[in-house]
Amino acid sequence: MTVSTGYAVLRCTDQESGEFLYQHVLSDQFVSWLLPRMTGTNYPAVNSQDVASYLVLMPPPAVRSKVGQILTSIDEAIEATRAVIEQTRRLKSALQEQLLSTGIGHRRFWKTKIGPVPEDWDIDTVGDLCEFSSGTGFSQSDWSTKGLPIIRIQNLNGSRASFKTLFGC
Questions:
Q1: pLDDT at site 2
Q2: In whole angstroms, how large is the CA radius of gyration of the chain?
Q3: What is the distance of C-alpha 92 from the center of its chain?
Q4: CA distance 75 to 159
Q5: Is 64 exposed, middle or buried (0-12, 13-18, 19+ CB in 10 A)?
Q6: DSSP letters for 121-146
Q7: Angle separating helix axes 61-102 and 18-26, nearest 10 degrees
Q8: Which residues pair with 148 in a beta bridge?
Q9: 3-state class of 8 per DSSP?
Q10: Spatial separation of the C-alpha atoms in residues 50 and 33, rounded to whole Å
Q11: Is 66 in a helix, a strand, or coil?
């Protein structure tokens, strides 16, 4: 094990156990054991003696290998799913831009100061369509799974945090 002010590096002495131990140190059990033992504020460090004293159940090598393979294949499936989700987000964004500006199947448009618009669409301002309230704080009891979206600063700053909706609206 190599310890630095910012990170620790574990090197398995038994190569066959590497994947198994890698999965173990990613486990919720290990992470919740480790977090209270980290020190430092800007660059949390790990005490090598603490990590070295952590007890690990070690099944026979064949079982360790199989467990490591199973968990690694699940990690790979998760990454593949994340890639599909990201592609789907990009597709949605492109479709959203197209559908919200040109509609579905419209062939006749009129020229406006914001560009061509389907001829049967109106143009309004957000101010005509919404009432604004600034600085209103909402607690979790105000949130719902259906209703008007609460647009928070983090939603405007590129965060992937989901929008909350206002209960009863």
A1: 46
A2: 26
A3: 17
A4: 24
A5: buried
A6: -----HHHH-----S----GGGEESS
A7: 50
A8: 166
A9: strand
A10: 10
A11: helix
- Contact partners, residue 112, CB within 8 Å, separation at least 6: 123
Do the beta carbons of residue 10 and residue 21 sit within 8 Å? yes
Backbone angles phi, psi at 100, to 5 degrees: -80, -10
Residue pair 43/64 in contact (Cβ under 8 Å)? The answer is no
Helix boundaries (H) for 9-125: 18-26, 28-34, 48-52, 61-102
Output the six-digit token pair for 138: 């909402």
| Residue spans per domain, the chain | 2-58, 124-166
Per-residue pLDDT of the chain (169 residues; tens, 9 = 90+): 444 555 667 778 877 778 888 888 888 998 888 888 777 666 667 777 888 888 988 899 889 889 988 999 999 999 999 999 999 999 999 999 999 989 999 899 999 988 899 999 999 998 888 877 666 677 777 777 777 777 767 666 666 666 665 555 4
At 108 the pLDDT is 93
By residue count, the chain amounts to: 169
Nearest to 100 by CA among 85, 119, 121: 121
